[in-house]
Predict the 3D structure of the following.
Amino acid sequence: MISGGGNGTVVTIGSSASRATEMSGFTIAGGKLTTGYGAGLNISGSPTVSGNVIRDNEIHGERNYGAGVYCGYGSGPLITG
């Protein structure tokens, strides 16, 4: 498990990530944001994300997006399972 402990985004995948960048088999939990995007997983690039469990992440406030997963403008991830 990868836990954010209630302190911001748990995992960020940056804009340089390509389809060859893989994230698989993790539980992503405990993300908490009051401002921003993607409490559990924030993606800017185009990685392969498969077989993960994304749970118990929180986002509060207005104009905040993606309690579980946020895919930024121009990103193109492959998300399965």
